[in-house]
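Re: the 302-residue chain
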Amino acid sequence: MITWQGFLKRFLSDPVAIGAGIVLLFLIVMAVLAPWIAPQNPYDLLQLDIMDSELPPSWRDGGDERYWLGTDAQGRGVFSTIMYGTGISLIIGIGAVIVQGILGVTLGLWAGYKGGWVDSFLMRLADIQMSLSTLMIAIIALALFQAAFDANVYADYAIFMLIIIIGIAEWPKFARTVRSSVLGEKNKEYVDAARVIGLPARKVMWVHILPNTLTPVLVISTIQVAEAIMTEAALSFLGLGMPTDKPSLGSLIRSGFEFIFSGSWWITLYPALVLVALVLALNLLGDWLRDVLNPKLRRGDD
């Protein structure tokens, strides 16, 4: 197993991983500190002035030095909305992966350890789930939710609904990964020893087998956060994600899309660039983790 020293050495010797890590750290810090360092609170209507709408970036003619990335159609500073929107996108992405992990790890662990009809049933259920597009499931569920409740109720529960729907739609990826690892671990000597001394199956699974299956879970979690953020952005762009008064990166892109051809390109461009940077950083770090934690690819670094 790779040590922390070997892990750090591999990280510092990989410029792509360093770059992705710096970008991700910067975006996370920016999102966390947004309530304290953002020039404007885009949720506070008292700070908004419709007369400031669609101002260009500060370095262009007609720009205002208070809004260095310009403003949107509601008079909100684009930089401030990006800071808050990045936080919402990260909350949804991480929350959805937590739901995926809880469901997928539990069902994958149970299927791999129990085998038989339990394994067959859960894996066929996973096959059915994976045959359906995550976006399609989310569109149907969110459309029904929006039709059943008014806009104010939807706005209050949008983050929760997106986390739950995206999480439930993607659990098979975790389940299959964990099941595969469990099948390779459950017949090893340390598991037989745990059974011989009379430990219950629950304790054997969660205390002895699970810790040895977490390496691939860590890798897939990083990539799944990026996928969840992209799914939320797509839903928001279609009008089924976050409302415009509680913007995520996806809803910010959507809110400015209609103004691109009228000349207010900055409303969409800058949130889109941040979304690309966030997703790319997560995917690059996920690929790097996969390579580092794969024993077949390590060459004595640990």
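Residues 146 and 154 are 6 Å apart (CA to CA).
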